[in-house]
Amino acid sequence: MLTTVVGSYPVSDPCVPESISSKISNFLGLYDPYLPLLEQAVKDQINAGVDIISDGQVRGDMIQVFARHLPGMMVEGGTSKIFDKIMPSNNSLAGNDLKFAIKTAQKTSSDFLDSIKLNNKVLVGNDFNKNFKGVKGIITGPTTLVLSSRVERFYKRDEKEKIIMDMARALKKEAFALQEAGAAIIQIDEPYLSTGVADLKTAKTAIKIITDNLSIPVSMHVCGDIADVFKDILKFSVQIIDCEFAGLPNNIQALEQEYDGSKKIGFGCIDTKVESVDELDHVVNLIKNGLNIIGEENIILDPDCGMRMLSRDVALLKLKKMTEAVGWF
Predict the structure, then answer these.
(1) pLDDT at residue 67, as a whole number
(2) Cα–Cα 20 to 30 A to 328, which of 17, 50, 184, 212?
């Protein structure tokens, strides 16, 4: 069974330059205080034995990191705002970080150096390769970005569908940039799809805009209670649906009732909402439950959601507990 993460990892404040070379870079305006944090997140995930890692999303929360960079958006007073027509960014928002994460992974682990070059189709074909490793690129979904932002000026507030379509077209460029940068998977985060306020038909169309013509697998992460939407999100144009099953056991019932074998399932088996480290027996039993419903060929294990709010020590122990549990199968 493959293991992955949802994305965010605990980070401290941006690093102050300490070495002579970093101080010189800082003086020249070239120092990036987030790269040491990115490197730390990558190394922790690899040391925990995770197969498909992330860059740790060290530059900020999932909304503001895009709102600060996409033309037509801004962050003001801690609020994400849409003030003009949303357009693609000239530069990939996460492409450079993904490249750095891949280089760090290759330097840290010879397994990553060898297997990161594998054909990505092993994740979606019948050959579910247990030795696959790589780095996923992460995009905040168009519906979540729009519904999380205040609409001002250019668009009317009742033009949500139009705004979401423009957002999807802007994010499509980001998806292709991540693919070009070497992403093993692209994950689209759409937490708003479980809230009841999102129009699922519009969200489905927007996701298709992003995923059309991509050649690598796409995962869509929907956190929260998915009982009312799981049947619908199984129809989205992605290969993997990722949800929480450790902290939200009621989602198991939705999986039992609605799963049709059409997708691989990112199976959240570690509770990220509590600081205590999960008991091994509990994780193993939860995975067994998932396997009975999904089958080994269709399950990808990960924590419930991002780990940003945990301490680094606890996050690392939780990831190790997940990979330890896999060893029992």
Answers:
(1) 94
(2) 184
Determine the 3-state secondary structure of 220 from DSSP: strand
- Sheet arrangement for strand 150-151: 73-76, 79-82, 150-151
State the pLDDT at residue 191: 97
Distance of CA 214 to the CA centre of its chain: 17
Contact 220, 171 (CB under 8 A): no
Alpha-carbon distance of 243 to 224, in angstroms, equals 8
* DSSP state, residue 38: H
CA distance 136 to 177: 12
Q: Where are the beta strands (DSSP E) in the chain?
A: 2-3, 52-53, 73-76, 79-82, 134-140, 150-151, 185-189, 218-221, 240-244, 264-270, 299-303
197 CB neighbour count, 10 Å cutoff: 9
C-alpha span between 268 and 288 (Å, rounded)? 13
- SS3 for 305? coil
Residue ranges for the chain with pLDDT beneath 50: 119
CB 120 within 8 A of CB 136: no
Domains of the chain: 2-326 (3.20.20.210)
Token couple for 41: 């997140």
Per DSSP (E only), the strands in 11-103 are: 52-53, 73-76, 79-82
Residue that has been written with the tokens 């900020």 in this structure: 60
Q: What is the pTM of this model?
A: 0.93
Encode pLDDT of 45-61 as tens digits: 999 999 999 999 998 88
